[in-house]
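Before relying on records like the one below, remember that each one covers exactly one chain. Contacts with other chains, cofactors or solvent are not represented anywhere in the record.
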Amino acid sequence: MFKNNIKKYISSLAAVATVIGAFSVGFVSYGADSVVINAANFPDANLRDVVSAWYDTDSDGVLQQSEIQGIKTISIPGMLEDTCGEDAEISDLTGIENFTDCVRLRCGGIGLDTLDVSKMPQLVELTCGGNNLSSIDVSQNANLEWLNCPSNVLSTLDISANKKLTRLDCYINKLTSIDLSANTALTALYCQQNDLTSLNISALTALKTLNCSVNHLKTLDLSANTALEKASNSLIGNQTVDAPARYEDPAIFVQLAIENPSNITSTSLDRVDIVDGVEVSVPGYDGVDFTPQNADEIINGIEYYYNTGLSFAEDMKVTVNPIRNFYQVKFFKDETKTEVVGTVIVNKGETATAPEITDTPQCKAFVNWSTDLTNITTDMETYAVWKDDHSLAVTSFNDNIVHIECTKCGKQQIDASFTAILNAEKGAENYVALADVNNDGIINGKDYARLLNTFRN
């Protein structure tokens, strides 16, 4: 009896120990340095699956220090595809900071909406391009040497704390400015296809590679960047800027303030005028305005080339897009659009006044212009629509054939057999009005007699 009670007591203690142990797994995370792979520690379900599949080597649902230590590089994209499928995404990387030895985090193109690496100060490389990131905070990542964050929607990027940075890839974003004054270790900068309106890289004397093309730079100073290996227009040019245009009859002006305008080497508006028999070069930019001769010269933009101050660099190409509230209407003589009869400038919403056509085509009468000339809201071309205006007459009557042709051009000709039109009344298909010389509404013997008399040999 006593032995049986002892056994029951021991069994009860064992059961209690088992329950306590089970609760310890859920709340204590298997020790202070272990991390349970759950929604609290890894909110994103796909990230939990990746961590479980690739790093929970004993499959116990917990990351032990032995499973975390020594992980230097984490490349999420490949692991995500292998674990969750080709189109799987991760929107939140919370929990990745538990990998305290990770110095290279690669999480590009996985669908991230946010990214917090503030608890990973050991990072040397961060690749997070091709996501949906509108901001990245790398202020706590002083060891970062390469920040690779292209193809996001970044409008700002603060890298003032990243003084060890040697490479920055931030292309295809929405950056309007970037302060690089603290990043003097940079040797490679890729900031193309943003919305940058200025770029100061005078402090980057170690810079070897630069791509800042397809932004909105008006000027660029590379005089301090003598370490650059290449500075072709494809790497620094293809800039676009907007500028207001105004029309002061009869002149057009496109205003744009350009620092150091003497660095402009040429523009698409440059021309050579003949003054008193002498050729005079006239620049298309006068230091304040671009001065086109007509609207045709600005419809597709104005181009200029800017000397960056680096001897081996190509001049930077900039295209100016005039912003205007006036438009050009060009009038052509006919649908072939080979002869211009006039051009007018019209303010937005107004009606264009058509020029007078003094040289009317032979045997043609003006009908109208091919397009509506009211409420002009864009540059447009229009042409005169004409109708035939021949002077037809019977010119001969031989062998019962009534021959009719245009007395002005001789090109319009009609031959009608009198037998075929005899007794034809006005309105009938075979009625020929000019053969009805009596003008009585019927072609008959009277008309025949008069035709014979008129054209008697």
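DSSP finds seven helices and 24 strands in the chain.
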